[in-house]
Amino acid sequence: MKNLLKLELRKIRKQKSFYICTLVMVGLLFLSVLTSDALSKNSELAGQFSSSGFDIIVSSLNSSSFLLVAGIFVALCVCNDYEQETIKNIYARGYSRKRVYFSKLISVWISTTIMFTVVMLCAFIFGRAYFGTANLEGSRLIYIIGVQYTVCMANIFLFFFVSSLIRKNGLSIAATIVVPMIVNMLLGMLDSFMKFKDFSTADFWVSSFMGEISKVSVTDEKLSFCLIASLAYILVLPITGAFSHRKIEL
Predict the structure, then answer these.
(1) Stretch (H or E) spanning 62
(2) What is the DSSP letter of 247?
């Protein structure tokens, strides 16, 4: 397992998509900060678009399109070995499918955690430079970022699960973009059909969590719900994926 993990991490270090995707996130974040700064300085729109450094940090994952770009990276990272058929050489060395699956999952988790950290650090730098930091306790900010990280990893595990099933770069990229939207639409239709009172099935879909916790005004109840639900996804998806991976023909 240790050797497999070293191999996967070495491949990611050499993978251009890792650096390109990270730079794209930072670039999108910077453009968003510039836009917010310009709007806040507009005399007619200043009251409507006022921002602070903490607003920039809390909304940075949405501003950088983190889940979209990271989903593309995960699809490329997972599918390359299958597209190039190098995965057969790994199995030929006697490594089990379970070990290969979890070594890839851990390497993806580590690499996307680095991406998350870079985006957050850049958000802090940009936010402080353009808007300063005020109006929010440090402990609450840490809690929000912690929940956001957990939600991001739950989505990353979902992308990994889908890509491991498809194993084709193009289709996996399309799936990571389209599947969350389709599920959201289907759950919305189910809610409309069932006419639940004070209940929405869409609220339990992991892809819907980030939009709800990317505001400074998010409630503690919503943060707690998203945290617990995301942890459930993080627990269930790898186990389900590993079981499914055993059944896949190369």
Answers:
(1) helix 60-63
(2) T
Q: Would you tell me how many other CB atoms lie within 10 Å of the CB of residue 147?
A: 23
* Amino acid sitting at position 166: I
Statement: the pTM of the whole predicted model exceeds 0.85: yes
The secondary structure element, H or E, covering residue 202 is none
Contact 61, 70 (CB under 8 A): no
Closest Cα partner for 206 from 138, 152, 245? 152
pLDDT digits (tens, 9 = 90+) for 178-234: 988 898 888 878 877 777 666 778 788 999 899 889 988 889 999 999 999 999 999
Residue 127: C-alpha distances to residues 7, 24, 208, 212 (Å): 37, 18, 25, 21
Distances (CA, A) of 156 to 39, 196, 233: 33, 30, 10
Residue with tokens 């353009």: 130
CA dist 169 and 231 (Å) reads 27
Closest alpha carbon to 112 in 51, 168, 176: 176
For tokens 């730098």, name the residue.
125
Q: In the 8-state DSSP scheme, what is residue 86?
A: T
